[in-house]
Design a protein that fits this description.
mainly beta; two-stranded antiparallel sheet; 0% helix; 37% strand
Length: 103
């Protein structure tokens, strides 16, 4: 099996898939208690870094994604595929798994 070197610029999502850079999770509680990695919840907010061409409609045309590169989004907790490139974490998910754009 050949080794493949991936970077954010070489990943191009297909269809209605969206590539999101995961925001760092909180390491402290509101009371100041430090949380170990195993106790931290998976973050649900990230920044869109790549988008696919969009969903294909029944007539064959493409529906453009509602989000664009640079948007901060809130996505479903257990959605997508987790990918780690270098020290950064990413999620590749379908557009339907995005719940909201965060301003």
């Amino acid at each position: 099996m050949a080794a493949v070197s991936l970077s954010v610029s070489t990943v191009k999502p297909l269809g209605d898939r969206i590539f999101i850079k995961v925001s760092a999770s909180d390491e402290k509680t509101a009371g100041g208690i430090l949380l170990p990695d195993t106790a931290q919840e998976k973050p649900q907010v990230g920044e869109v870094v790549q988008i696919g061409a969009g969903k294909r409609n029944d007539d064959g045309s493409r529906q453009a994604p509602e989000v664009s590169v640079g948007d901060k989004v809130l996505y479903s907790k257990y959605a997508g595929t987790d990918i780690k490139l270098g020290s950064d974490e990413y999620v590749l998910l379908s557009e339907k798994d995005i719940l909201a754009v965060v301003s």
